[in-house]
Amino acid sequence: MAVNYSKTEIGKGISLTRITDPKYKSNIIRVRFITPIVPDDLGVNVLLTSLLVTSNSQYKSRSELSKKFLGLYGTSIGAVSANVSDYQSVGVTISAIRDRFTIGGEIISEEAVKQLIKCIFEPDLTDGRFNENYFRLRKQELLDNIAAAVNDKRSYAYMKAKEVIYAGEPAAASDMGTAERAAAITQEDLLRQYEFLMKHAAIDITVCGGGEADSAVKLLTDAFAKVERGDVPQINYLKASPLKDKLCEKQELMNIRQSKMFMAYKSSCHDIYVNKLMACILGGSAFSKLFVNVREKLSLCYYCDSYYSDLKNVMMIESGVDTENIEKAQQAIRDELAALQNGKLTDEELENAKLYICGGFMSNYDSEWDIASWYRVQDTRGTAYSPEEVCELIKAVTGEQVIESAKLMKPDTVFILKAEGGSDDE
Fold first, then answer.
1. Which of 51, 107, 265, 419 is the most exposed place for a label (fewest CB within 10 A)?
2. Is 262:158 a contact under the CB 8 Å cutoff?
3. What is d(CA 361, CA 355) in angstroms, rounded to the nearest whole number?
4. Torsional sign, CA 159, 163, 164, 166
5. What is the DSSP string of 142-164?
6. 19 lies in a domain?
7. Is 265 among the domain residues?
8. CA-CA distances (angstroms) from residue 406 to 71, 173, 268, 370?
9. Torsion over CA of 70, 75, 80 and 84, rounded to 10 degrees?
10. Within this chain, do residues 174 and 122 fall inside the same structural domain, yes or no?
């Protein structure tokens, strides 16, 4: 493929990533602020970035700012937030059509980036306070989003499972923090955190798309060159979660029809791609051992999937089960893992999994959003492999390596969101 990737440092703790492929007809620009997870600041950071994309010093209403971007051939702006390993990443992003595809080659990219810069560097502040109306609206949105995560029982179960699996680690925190903390956020919290992120967060600027973005890059580089920076943490996403001394089993009762079960395994094997292939063979596809045997043949689960979190070195097996089948499903899952550990692996299973994984990897070329996400994940691993290069790594994995990876997976946690009623939870 014709993707060109580069990453450079343009300031203290400020990196610029450029990903270019002429086939894309638009460019996306993301500015992320990355800090170690502090539970009390999670919701503050999410609320702050949602306010930054609502208005700025020039366009002081949401409708005015939206109208401005709409006039730039439908350029869009939005906030992004996620917890990645033991870090929180929040920021703003825009997507704009390339100048060559505008009517008559009209230059819109510079104005789009100027507005992005205004949102970041010139927020809509009066006497150190954000627009009070938008503050209340966005705060309510944050509370609604936290509530929605609880109402989605599969999402809620995963959130609660993480608390147990990563107990004592920053990764145990939910992405948006607690409703109690969100309700207590003040204007002073927002201004304090805004100043903190600008001075102390690691900043990642990503420009990805079809190219013709040199002027946009210069505007961004010049803007961030003026920022007064203090101490910035060294970001190291690869922080393996330690194996508990003994299997931790916890459950929470809820008025739902279908129980949600998470079985977490931790490993001393740090080969990301061997572990990913092993997890795919076990339960990562419609032809995996868990799907074919536990779900289809034994009918013990509504779904039964396994996936591997490389940054924490954890394999998660997630399933939806009827309460009366919990113990049977657990045993059947353990039997399938034990079978793989004992060498039950065919050449066909190995090759099918490789083809399945590589097909997914190569699909990242389908859009600028996907390829930007691909290299973002690569960056968290300290690598810059292309999808083709990772496919070669996957293809080189042997059956013996897969079996050894399975053997090194040790049981750490079982968490069950246990059904005790009959409400509709799906």
1. 107
2. yes
3. 10
4. positive
5. HHHHHHHHHHSHHHHHHHHHHHH
6. yes
7. yes
8. 55, 28, 11, 30
9. 170
10. yes
Chain segment 144-158, per-residue pLDDT in tens: 999 998 889 999 999
pLDDT, tens only, 230-260: 999 999 999 999 999 999 999 999 999 999 9
- Whole-number Cα distances in Å, 139 to 40, 151, 201, 262: 15, 19, 23, 32
Output the pTM of the full model.
0.94
Q: Is residue 198 part of a domain?
A: yes
**Are 75 and 96 in contact, with CB atoms under 8 Å apart?**
yes
Let me know if residue 240 belongs to a domain: no
**What is the average pLDDT score of the chain?**
96
Q: Identify each DSSP E strand in 12-114 by its residue range.
A: 14-20, 26-36, 76-84, 87-97
CB within 8 Å of 202: residues ≥ 6 apart: 13, 14, 15, 33, 34, 35, 232, 233, 235
CB neighbours of 188 closer than 8 A, spacing ≥ 6? none
Pair of tokens at residue 43: 């919701």
Q: pLDDT tens, 179-236?
A: 999 999 999 999 999 999 999 999 999 999 999 899 999 999 999 999 999 999 999 9
Range of the domain at 51: 4-225
Q: Is the same domain home to 262 and 322?
A: yes
Residues 388 and 303 in one domain: yes
Predicted local distance difference test score (pLDDT) of residue 104: 84
Closest CA to 285 of 306, 262, 259, 256: 306
Q: Is 191:15 a contact under the CB 8 Å cutoff? A: no
Q: Where are the beta strands (DSSP E) in 223-341?
A: 248-254, 259-267, 303-309, 314-321
Q: Which amino acid is at 12?
A: K
Residues in the chain: 426
Report the DSSP beta bridge partners of residue 320. 260, 303
Q: How far apart are alpha carbons 65 and 357 in whole angstroms? A: 41
